[in-house]
Description:
The protein is mostly helical. It has one domain (36-237, 248-455): Growth Hormone, Chain: A (Up-down Bundle). Helices cover 69% and strands 1% of the residues. The protein has a two-stranded antiparallel ribbon. α3 packs antiparallel against α16 (420-432), α6 runs antiparallel to α14 (368-397) and α11 runs antiparallel to α17 (438-453). It starts with 35 loop residues before the first helix and ends in a 17-residue tail after the last helix. The relative contact order is 0.18.
Amino acid sequence: MSVDSPQPVPSHPLPTARPEVPTPGTAAGAGRLLSRPVLAWASWDWGSAAFNAVMTTFVFTVYLTTDAFGGEDRASVVLGWGLATAGVLIAFLAPVTGQRSDNGGRRKLWLGVNSLLVAVLTGLCFFVFPRPEFLFLGVALIALANVFFEFAGVNYNAMLTQISTPRSIGRISGFGWAMGYVGGIVALVLVLVAFVEPIFTWFGSDTTDSLNIRLVAVFSALWFLAFAVPVMFAVPEVPRKAKSAQLGFFASYGLLFRRVKAIYRTSPHTIFFLLASAVFRDGLAAVFTFGGIIAAGTFGFTLSEVIVFAIAGNLIAAVGAVGGGFLDDRAGPKRVIVISLIGLLIAGSAVLILGPGTHEFLGFIWTGDTTFWVFGLMLTLFVGPAQASSRAYLARLAPAGQEGELFGLYATTGRAVSFLAPALFATSITIFGEQRYGIIGILVVLLAGLLVLLPVKPPAKVAPAVAPSY
């Protein structure tokens, strides 16, 4: 069916999916940007940067793809397939785990449990020594941590409707992403001055067997855990739904399918958006997952230079997320996402075409370093708004009390195709024999996501989703 299939036209403007009144479990002060619940909620994003920025983007995966683990090309391929495998697990399990935390009144509990598991797996990366036989252990730990991180993210994203109103949901979502980027800056600075290029000598600066880099994993685990705590006290738990909470695990899939059918009948563009965002979000994730790897392997950045770039990139991304959040509340999330995807395609193409050599472009002489700094930072500028507006788009359409399940579907549809970017990244390297060409795989996914999104209606023109409670 086309996404533009005729739908019944109401005689009055379509209402927003969520009324501007508190729903059960909504935190006191919801909607105010600097309120206690919003700050506590955003603290989780701040802490999660230790996993996103330090572990999976700019430090630990860069470490995993060095020559110590058998060569950058081989290690990049193993990492790509490892993350693709993690995506399959998330695709099958995320919506039901979200549904069960909604129905059982355990959204906050499972956010805490999954966050703890991420911290433990991150800490275990300390035992990944710089030898080829440890590559699969390192990839397995990072991949499994990604699984539980996504499960935690389902519950975390679902809380957005508890701390915001329809008029503030875009800027609060953007504020959360910005807090994550700024948290990433602080974490990366600490990693740089304490472990990678220490300003004083201590046992954590010892480079024997890459002890300093392995200790970064311990630091990241503790950082994430510490900043994940505030949300557990500031945002109330959602109420338990007695009847649907009694469903067994496999019976939950039956309820899930009934709800998806009901949402499709009442608000088909909600489903269309889930499918479109699945594609482009996979490309967004790949920009960060493989950005540091490309900086080091293709453009010759040292680990210290990668971290300095990451600090600058997170600052630019934070500005983009905040600006995009305010634009979201005024112009709508779809416009923000489309503009961001076009910007990403332009910047990514420039990185690919210009590459690490010296070229003349737009009347200037571009070296590899200049190319990556200019267009790499341009990439980070557009990632934040696309991520924040995608979350805000779905939160506007979520049926009250079923946010966790819908964000579970959000994770599942994303992870159902999450093998695309890692697989195309790995395949492009295999075909062309050079890490640089992995960028082609990422660009293909971003372009496909943009094309699938264009026919999807913005939230203001979409009927609210209605789904059965059990």
